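User: I'm preparing a small set of examples for a lab meeting where we compare how different chains pack in three dimensions. I only have the primary sequence for this one, and I'd like the structure in token form so I can line it up with the others. Please keep the answer compact; I'll paste it straight into my notes.
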Amino acid sequence: ATMPRRLLPSLLALSSTLLPSHFVVSSIVPALEKVGNNGEPVEVFPLAKCLGDCDSDDECDGDLVCYKTNVENEVIPGCAGVVSSIRVDYCFERSSTFLWRVGNNGVPAEVFPLKACEGDCDRD
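Assistant: Understood. Below is the structure token output for the 124-residue chain.
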């Protein structure tokens, strides 16, 4: 199987462990990488996992969501590296147990009522 070209540059973190039986186990974790902004260049959108800069979930591939960064050195789940600029947001795979702030005081209306692990809620 071949990888899409847009994924190749982001596969920077590779860890390997040599087991006693001489089998090599490898896991590839995509590294955070800014590859575009505001839908340009068009060939990198929708963005793959751990790629940025996204402005909304619509700019992320499939079920990925846009992780809005808040602080430098923030770790984004499932991605290698840390956020170097709070001005860049990245697509990531949100697990069902990840706490996520999606709105406040009924805004935006389309996310209410909130689901499990979503906030900001003021009452049940």
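A couple of notes for your slides: Residues 1-26 have pLDDT under 50 and may be disordered. The first strand starts at residue 13 and ends at 18.

User: Perfect, thanks.
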